[in-house]
Amino acid sequence: MASRVLDAKRVLDIGWWKVEVYSGTNFDIKLGTLYVQCEEAFFIGAWAPPGDYDIINLFCTALPDKAPPWAYKVNCPDIHYSLRYHAKVYLPLEGTYSFESWNDDGLRLYVDGQKLIDDWNFHGPTRNVVNVALAKGWHDIIVEYMEGGGNWVCLVGVTLPDGTKVKPLVPKAGIKFMVVP
């Protein structure tokens, strides 16, 4: 991918996550910060993706014990690592949103500082769903993920109040991303 200069105040239709990469499963040693396009940010290993996820917008591999390719830019290990994703996300409707994660191993999801999903342990693929009432507008979203070894998956999606599914969470159906400095 060509290098791009990002303007932190500009809304990008393609969407970017700021991702902090750490060695260790609990943010032990920070290796660096990357900006990753939404379409490349979430990933799945040997597990079959849930049927309602758009696999065109996922990094997929059948190989266990591998970090996502972009994480190698800061020397991420293949196992025992953690990632912290951060973005400002525009949600186009007022009402109840259904956020979902599908993860192996741990994952936490925060919206506007409120922890909505707390599944921080070692396990096989697990689906978590939480409903939250949100106003139309910009929201601070943080996803924390950790991988302890073996197969891995890190997916986050949302269902809008009108029933539109955006899985994985990418700019679509009125959702926009703003770069976080």
Distance between the termini: 20 Å
Number of domains: 1
Number of helices: 1
Question: Largest beta sheet, briefly?
Answer: 8 strands, antiparallel
**Relative helix content:** under 10%
The first-level CATH class is given as Mainly Beta
Strand content: over 45%
If you compute it from the alpha carbons, what radius of gyration comes out, rounded to the nearest whole angstrom? 15 Å
Shape: globular
CATH architecture descriptor: Sandwich
Mean pLDDT comes to 88
Which structural class do the helices and strands define? mainly beta
User: What's the total number of strands?
Assistant: 14
Q: What is the H/E string? A: EEEHEEEEEEEEEEE
CATH topology: Jelly Rolls
Which spans of ≥5 residues are poorly predicted at pLDDT below 50?
A: 1-9
Describe the fold and architecture.
This protein has 181 residues and is mainly beta. The chain has a single domain, classed as Jelly Rolls, CATH 2.60.120.1560. 2% of the residues lie in helices and 48% in strands. The protein contains 1 helix and 14 strands. Strands 1, 2, 3, 6, 8, 9, 11 and 14 form an 8-stranded antiparallel sheet that branches. Strand 12 (153-159) and strand 13 (165-166) form a beta hairpin. The longest helix has 4 residues, at 38-41.
